[in-house]
Amino acid sequence: MTTAELTILLVSTAFAAFLKSGAGIGTGLFLLPALSLIFDPFKALAATAPLLLIMDIMAVGCHWKRWVGPPALTVMTGLSVIGVLCGSLAVPHLPTNVLKILIGLIGVIYALSNLLPFRGLQYLTSHLPASFAATAIPAYLSSFLGGLFNVVNAGSVFYAFSMVHLKLESRVFVATCCVLILISNFVRAVGFSLNGILPPELIITALKLSPIIAVFSWLGSRIVARCPPSLFRNLVFLLILVMCTKTLSAAF
């Protein structure tokens, strides 16, 4: 690995850890296109698995036992795991350009839906049929889709939708998202290891970066407390938009 590639790896990992503890969402959609600058799309996708898993463990520790209780969490977790398993089986068969397009499109739509005035998640929730919206089915379906798309680091889009639909208090919202993403990332990492996508050297690299992740996770939690939440989140969405637009353009 060249000095430039190592620098990109260190900086992107540090900033992703900062985002994880500061914003809670969008970390994977930033980290994947950033690592795609130095790795091919499949290796970049594999590299995010252990890195995000370490970040998730630290995030869950910060929000310990604040998540929603069973049976909702049990059902959502089960459906999420099924989604991850389905996605892990599909990923090895995707052409490189298709993977780039998928990552880019999801990221661009996600960023724009949060930057534009109608605010995507709230808009979708408010326009569900009343009889359907009154049930927990949309939240459960979103949990499955979260697991499915978490394989390409886009699970938080759907997990956040399920949290919005259940109308959870903000700390419970964040804690539950962290738990679901941690479990799905663990299953994803195991799946990637079993099908040969995640080699041992990438796991070792992630472990070596643990101190950097710990430091910048702590910094993120400190700095975000001093920054207006709306400003911080909009900056995150703008960054995701730029990175995913670049990934999308590279597919053509």
From TrEMBL:
Subcellular localization is given as: Cell membrane
Q: Does the keyword Transmembrane helix apply?
A: yes
Instruction: Return the InterPro entries for the record.
Output: TM_pro_TauE-like (IPR002781), TSUP (IPR052017)
- Tell me how this protein sits in the membrane: Multi-pass membrane protein
Q: Does the keyword Cytoplasm apply?
A: no
Any one Pfam family match given in the protein's UniProt record, by short name:
TauE
Query: GO terms for CC?
Result: plasma membrane
Record field: transmembrane: 6-32, 44-66, 72-91, 98-117, 137-160, 172-190, 202-219, 231-251
Keywords tagged on the record: Cell membrane, Membrane, Transmembrane, Transmembrane helix, Transport
**What family does this belong to?**
Belongs to the 4-toluene sulfonate uptake permease (TSUP) (TC 2.A.102) family.
Q: What is this protein called?
A: Probable membrane transporter protein
